[in-house]
TrEMBL record:
Residues 105-184 form the Beta-ketoacyl-[acyl-carrier-protein] synthase III N-terminal domain. Residues 247-251 are annotated as: ACP-binding. Its main location: cytoplasm. It comes from Candidatus Anaerobutyricum stercoripullorum. It catalyses: malonyl-[ACP] + acetyl-CoA + H(+) = 3-oxobutanoyl-[ACP] + CO2 + CoA. The active site is at residues 111, 246, 276. One of its GO terms (cellular component) is cytoplasm. It is an enzyme of class 2 (transferase). Pathway: Lipid metabolism; fatty acid biosynthesis. Gene3D superfamilies: 3.40.47.10. Keywords: Acyltransferase, Cytoplasm, Fatty acid biosynthesis, Fatty acid metabolism, Lipid biosynthesis, Lipid metabolism, Multifunctional enzyme, Transferase. This is Beta-ketoacyl-[acyl-carrier-protein] synthase III. One of its GO terms (biological process) is secondary metabolite biosynthetic process.
Length: 319
């Protein structure tokens, strides 16, 4: 018995920014961005916030699952880009959707955040502490993008994705084929400071990234973690219908498919339209697939993410 996803939802800000608009801000081109990343457009928040998008994605997931908000025991929001540190976004979502029974907290493991949230919720279910959980990835990365840095501003976008998780069986029968890893010694590859230190000296509040280092790390570690997940679930790579991966760069996903010697068609992507939205990517892509009718009962999926920290991880999911 596994933890199942009973419903999904997602939301994007209204404003679309194409590569030509970015090329008017920094020395780059539509051709360079598309060739190196696969990205054509991204959505950038205007009035939308991390909390407002999280709540909207949550409402759509609740509707898709056909449950009432009072049934939710736990809300976990993954974000690296909230507008405020208190209250946490998960509590704002709890208030907005009326999930009056739910415990709520935020987590930060960057682009691996949805994978981490899934494992935390599944662990609570296995311990008998929750039956229904809402896990959300919501990001307004544009809050922390330096629009004069062509190494990062071409890549990031805003949006939110949510999933309702339910235990498909008694707690003691639950299997959780899920793996999380971290390597803090490589944390300098992607950083962002917040506000002021005790000395009131302003920190650099923008994302700073060694893109090449993260690219290499992802291409090496994601196939490894997929194999780890499969050894836990007892499946071969060939048995998996879809690999739902963090949408950081089309070339990273293509390289992972190649390393696993699998057809790229089983690695769905929405990076072309949305860019890299950190922890929102995976639940948003899952919601796209769900709404397009690509996911049929019994289908076998592996979801995997990687990002700042550095962190990486994955889990096996049966639809
Ligand atoms: O979500 C998890 C965290 N982030 C990631 O996963 C990001 C992973 N990394 C990447 O996606 C890629 O490394 C980038 C898209 C960020 C960069 O692509 P790249 O192919 O690794 O380019 P590069 O950094 O090796 O730079 C190649 C060249 C350099 O010029 P020289 O030194 O060869 O003359 C750069 O200065 O491209 C130049 N360059 C650009 N040119 C036009 C870098 N950024 C741009 C740009 N437009 N935006």
């Amino acid at each position: 018995m596994f933890v199942k996803i009973a419903g999904t939802g997602s939301v994007l800000p209204e404003r679309v920014v194409d590569n030509f608009e970015i090329a008017r801000m920094v020395d780059t081109s539509d051709e360079w961005i598309q060739t190196r990343t696969g990205i054509r457009t991204r959505h950038i928040a205007g009035k939308e916030t991390v909390a407002s998008m999280a709540a909207e994605a949550a409402k759509r997931a609740i509707e898709d699952a056909g449950i009432s908000p009072e049934e939710i025991d736990l809300i976990i929001v993954s974000t690296v880009s909230a507008e405020q540190s208190l209250p946490c976004v998960a509590c704002e979502v709890q208030k907005e959707i009326g999930a009056v029974r739910a415990a709520a907290f935020d987590l930060n493991s960057a682009c691996s955040g949805f994978i981490t949230g899934y494992q935390m919720a599944a662990g609570q279910m296995k311990a008998g502490l929750a039956k229904t959980a809402l896990v959300i990835g919501s990001e307004c990365l544009s809050n922390y993008v330096d629009w004069s840095d062509r190494g990062t501003c071409i890549l990031f976008g805003d949006g939110a994705g949510a999933a309702i998780l339910r235990a498909d069986g008694a707690p003691e029968e639950l299997e959780i084929p899920s793996v999380l890893h971290a390597d803090g010694s490589k944390g300098d590859s992607l950083t962002c400071s917040l506000g002021h230190g005790k000395d009131k000296v302003p920190y650099d509040e923008y994302y700073r990234m060694d893109g090449r280092a993260i690219f290499k790390f992802a291409v090496r570690k994601v196939p490894e973690v997929i194999r780890e997940v499969l050894s836990l679930s007892g499946h071969s790579v060939e048995e998996i219908d879809y690999f739902v991966l963090h949408q950081a760069n089309r070339r990273i996903i293509e390289a992972i498919a190649k390393r696993l010697r699998q057809d790229e068609a089983r690695f769905p992507m929405n990076i072309m339209d949305n860019g890299n939205i950190s922890s929102a990517c995976i639940p948003m892509l899952l919601d796209d697939m769900n709404r397009k009718g690509l996911l049929k009962p019994g289908m076998k999926l592996v979801l995997a993410g990687f990002g700042a920290g550095l962190t990486w991880g994955g889990f096996y999911l049966e639809w």
